[in-house]
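Milestone 3.1: sequence recovery, worked example.
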């Protein structure tokens, strides 16, 4: 994993910091004083202050006099410190919220030991230590709650800073960029020729903002570049849990796992392979279209593709310890992503598109993986109707969004909520196509014979009772009645 800097880089960094006339709100010098509680408070303060000052990192450095910036060395060894029998780094990480990356680096400058604590800037939420948030005011560490103007400014900054702008790997060389990114896939997906030299490749990646030049003259690899084109997401500590996990179960519950695999590639370079892998895991289904029996996959590939693309693109990357999931059971497929949806689940089909991660969504649209026009769920519902499947289910589970596709089931075997949900989504699909649901269209959707129109009428009545649909014109005769979604 990419977790530390080279000694040469750190030595150069410390010498540059020592030239500053004063400490900054994102930089603190210490001669010694490795007291654990104070270190935790400083991590919170420096992380929050780094975010306020648009810095990628905050720094706490031992072995430097804070008044003269003279290098005097330190006896502090973070690896040897324990708090209540627990290693210092683990103890600090346990008491910080949200979890952020920080690294203790022990180096030697002019023959004297120096320790550099490098701290990632806060993102999405202020960093707390022991449930308290800290900030630097001048050269002093203070509680954030005592400075409401800084707290408001910090939250405004978080609202404007997207996940894509974060840094997955700091200070890497041109060769490392080419090592970590699947750059041939980038040119291939955009149908562009691969440049015949490193400079051309790097210029193209930089133009996309997959990589950014840093102050040391090297490259920072952005979350945007890594999440789309990483050769191996596990090489990036902050992104390793965002790889797609696919699990196949033997039964309709999670008691017995048949197969499990965690993806490694970035979302853009690995999408085609992911869809192929998933679609090969479930059996075929027989449907009849215009009196011809056809063998098709149990779950429509287009619907699976759209739902997995949505899960990748619209997830909330600030939810830690979780990533997109595809759970395959004998009777259903559940596709789950971290984060609550930006629109209500019962309005997925008609709502204008909203992307939580706009740059990722825009790039995936450019390569044909998704559409930002909001038509993806329309396709999912249409495909389930075409394949004579129960209607998909969209729901919020905790702080996750889950979409479920169901295997074939006869109408007589469906629960009442399955039938009314299908009726509602059918009405939505018709409405967004500037059409209306009727008894006849619902019969076609369920494969109900014409002489059994009363069956469709009962489903419509149940959907009206549940306030999912309503008559377009209540004064129209029952035989010619047309129906629209409740929100129309």
């Amino acid at each position: 994993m990419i977790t530390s800097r080279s000694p040469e880089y750190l030595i150069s960094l410390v010498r540059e910091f020592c030239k500053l006339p004063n400490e900054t709100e994102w930089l603190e010098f210490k001669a010694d004083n490795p007291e654990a509680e104070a270190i935790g408070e400083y991590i919170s303060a420096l992380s929050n202050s780094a975010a306020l000052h648009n810095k990628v990192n905050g720094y706490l450095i031992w072995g430097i006099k804070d008044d003269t910036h003279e290098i005097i060395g330190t006896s502090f060894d973070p690896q040897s410190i324990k708090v209540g029998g627990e290693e210092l780094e683990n103890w600090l990480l346990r008491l910080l919220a949200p979890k952020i990356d920080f690294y203790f680096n022990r180096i030697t400058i002019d023959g004297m030991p120096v320790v550099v604590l490098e701290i990632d800037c806060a993102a999405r939420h202020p960093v707390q230590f022991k449930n308290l948030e800290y900030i630097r005011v001048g050269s002093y560490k203070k509680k954030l709650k005592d400075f409401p103007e800084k707290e408001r400014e910090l939250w405004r900054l978080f609202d404007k800073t997207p996940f894509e702008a974060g840094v997955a790997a700091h200070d890497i060389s041109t060769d490392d960029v080419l090592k970590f990114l699947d750059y041939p896939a980038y040119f291939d997906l955009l149908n562009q020729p691969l440049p015949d030299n490193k400079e051309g490749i790097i210029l193209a990646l930089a133009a996309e903002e997959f990589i950014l030049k840093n102050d040391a003259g090297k490259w920072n690899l952005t979350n945007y570049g890594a999440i789309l084109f990483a050769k191996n997401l596990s090489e990036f500590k902050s992104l390793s849990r965002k790889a797609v996990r696919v699990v196949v179960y033997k039964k309709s519950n999670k008691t017995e796992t048949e197969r499990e695999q965690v993806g490694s590639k970035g979302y853009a370079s690995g999408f085609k392979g992911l869809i192929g892998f998933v679609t090969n895991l479930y059996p075929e289904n027989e449907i009849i279209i215009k009196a011809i029996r056809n063998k098709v996959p149990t779950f429509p590939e287009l619907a699976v593709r759209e739902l997995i693309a949505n899960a990748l693109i619209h997830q909330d990357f600030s939810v830690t310890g979780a990533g997109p999931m595809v759970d395959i059971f004998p009777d259903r497929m559940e596709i789950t992503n971290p984060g609550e949806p930006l629109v209500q689940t019962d309005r997925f089909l008609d709502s204008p598109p909203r992307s939580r991660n706009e740059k990722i969504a825009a790039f995936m649209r450019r390569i044909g993986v998704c559409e930002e026009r909001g038509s993806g769920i329309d396709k999912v519902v249409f495909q389930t109707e075409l394949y004579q499947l129960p209607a998909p289910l969209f729901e919020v589970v905790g702080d996750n969004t889950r979409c479920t596709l169901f295997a074939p089931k006869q109408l007589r075997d469906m629960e009442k909520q399955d039938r009314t949900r299908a009726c509602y989504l059918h009405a939505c699909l018709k409405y967004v196509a500037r059409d209306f649901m009727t008894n006849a269209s619902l019969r076609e959707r369920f494969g109900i014979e014409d002489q059994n129109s009363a069956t469709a009428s009962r489903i419509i009545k149940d959907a009206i009772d549940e306030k999912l649909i309503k008559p377009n014109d209540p004064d129209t005769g029952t035989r010619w009645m047309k129906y629209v979604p409740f929100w129309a």
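The radius of gyration is 28 Å. The mean pLDDT is 90.
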